[in-house]
Write the structure tokens for this entry.
Amino acid sequence: MQTVTRLFKTFQPNTYSLNITIHRVARTFEGEVEITGTLTKAQSFIPLHAKHLIITHAAVDEQEAAAEIHENDEVQIATTNQLATGTHTLKLAFNGAITDPMHGLYPCYYEHCGAKKELLATQFESHHAREAFPCIDEPEAKATFSLTLVTETGVEVLGNMPVASQQTTGETLITTFETSPKMSTYLLAFVIGELQHKEATTKDGVIVRTWATPAQPIESLAFSLDTAVKTIEFFNDYFGVKYPLPKSDHVALPDFSSGAMENWGLITYRETTLLADPEHTSVSSRHYIATVVTHELSHQWFGNLVTMKWWNDLWLNESFASLMEVIALDHLRPEWNASLDFAAHDTVVALRRDVLTSVQAIKTEVHHPDEISTLFDPAIVYAKGANVLNMLRAYIGDTAFRDGLRVYFARHRYANTTGDDLWAAFEEASHKNVKEFMYAWLEKPGYPLVSINQQGAHLELEQKRLLLNGKDTTSLWPIPLLAEPPFAVELLSKHTTALTAATDTPRLFNKGGKSLFVSRYTQKSHRDFIRSQIKAKAYEPVDRLRLLNEGTLLARAGEQRLAEVLDLMSGYENEDRDAVWDMISLVIADTRRFVEHDPAAEAGLKQLVLKLIKKNYGELGHTFSATDSEEVIKLRATIFSLAVWAEHPAALEFALSEFHRFKDPGDLPAEIRSIIYGAGARWRGEEAYDKLMTLYKQTTFAEERHNIAGGMSATRNLDVVHKLLAHMTDTSIVRLQDTAFWFVYLARKNDAREFAWQWLVDNWGWLMQQFGSDKSLDYFPRYAASAFTGKGWLEKYEAFFTPKKTDPALRRAIEIGIEEIISRTVWFERDEPSLRQYLTEKQ
Ligand code: BES
Ligand code: ZN
């Protein structure tokens, strides 16, 4: 199998002195770089990464050299004589182009006071630094960076480090930054343009600033600033090693491919993940912003201070950052109950994806450079990884977990690690065999289904992998039981295990949901008992939502019927936690797909939903008040959304009258704007389109554009569908950062699906141009698969995407996509008759 050539083995940079002159209007840049480093083999060239760069001059140790281009973004700086091992200095002059795809050095567009404006920004993870300057573009190649930027005047120039000196000569501004500590190339960044900021200082004197273009209200920088300051202070304490840079900048960019990026000292964000407008940002968006800020700040340690040696250990970055979000928020905002949201989102997402045979393990080898970006599977390296680490935390205890991290950071700062270094630190702190415990969870795909057969006080437990297609009878996991009160056995590590309980009360397993398995209670009396406990709210919210989630997984795997899950769900009428309602909404969304083409069953589902929400809707209504708690605001929005879908007369009437009434989004409560837009689009066709599209073009507030795009996709008017699709390749309307969202919003709608797919097929060439080298390319096969059910759709998907599997950036997403459509189709065929019966006869 092909592997990626690692240039660091041959040449190990120590210092970069980098000077880049930027010609924004001409869309070009030129630069010089001086790299000192160690050559480990005597040979007549030094290899570097460079992509789409022209190297105009090269010298090694002051001797002229030639830049020869090789495959896989490699350039060899060739000398006429043999170079000895040891230190060498390279000097290169180069130039390149600034292009729209959102990686390397790229422009961001915005309007302010009627004028078209631009920022310039960088995005180097995972391997795009090579598009801006020649370098060893591998995480292990840590070096110091001294950066100078030559730009136009009248702009802010931000880098990883504070500005050391700045001078204006005529039309140019020369900015030199302080030299950075040793760091990886993927974390280097700079941003240039007109920006406004808010500033605060941590207890330890770190300057924290949040930035946005002048088109945004300055108050929208306050919430993230406050969160950032408190988060740095918390991590300083928790990790036992202080934030190492003098400053921490956070910039909201109008065009940004992912959610946010942890560049050291200069974190970049989408506007929606940093800017919390006091009047216009919903509570759930505000919570998400805090999540993103804590995630990126945790990377300043996990990833930036201590970095994975190679991308196969990407989980050391992303799994940890995804868990640290929860640990930080549980500390900073205990009332938000971030762990419960984690159970409702991350755990659900992970368990739903990890039942497919083509899904990779958390730790995965990289065979081709273009495969690196496919490792960032949100469900696996983020969500499953975070769950597995959280399980480890529960297994060794909070204190040992934190102490292990303190050892790890103190020992490996400014260096690179593999998982083994972390396990060693945890083992020292916990005296448990962490490495052995983690092996199967980390390096094998999937997770176990545990069948529980309780007869009196005697229990028999059996584990096997939960899979939707195919069988796996060999995989075994060491499963922490985390039982209260504990059993004599701590880990289930065999296929079958017998246990004895203290009493013969039916036991609930995985109480608290921190272990990563799905339980199946084999005895009907046991299931009935659990159901009665849920109804009585005798279990914690986390278990209430977990049991429902487990029900849907068992239904997907054919272990029970979807109708049985709905029956279980009908016991949730008294539920009062929004996170649990998120789970209920997901079950309803699953079921909606089954009834899309079946009006009688759909009517039955609507009846079921109306019954389920009756109590909550009756109590909460749809009017928001200034004294509502955040939990009430979120819950009311969730219930209202279900009510409008189920055509609750009062809810629908309110939504449509609000749609008619509002002139400005500010006239509507932030939490339910997208629901109101959706109701308008669905029931008021063309007229709604005009109103919403005008607003979409006018607003400078990115969250509002999401609300509107999501809302508009609910239309049933095909003319409107075609108009929406036509906008999607016009980047002056739909920004590149939002194309994939527009696509998935429409593809998931029954009325628009066929046309959204045709749009994708027709515009594939354009999509490749815009996203061909970007990590977001695989959103398209992934999102399409998430929208398709049935043999006809499977054929269309395969006919189009199978030939594209030769692209390493797409192969994995396509294979998983095909499997996902197949398993959903099988599920549909299996469960549709009994579901139809349940919905048409029982309701
Ligand atoms: N490091 C990633 C962003 C990234 C990964 C950019 C790969 C380019 C290539 C960042 O820390 C991240 O994980 N961002 C998330 C948001 C986060 C809060 C889950 C994202 O962009 O989705
Ligand atoms: Zn991350």
Summary: The radius of gyration is 27 Å. The mean pLDDT is 97.
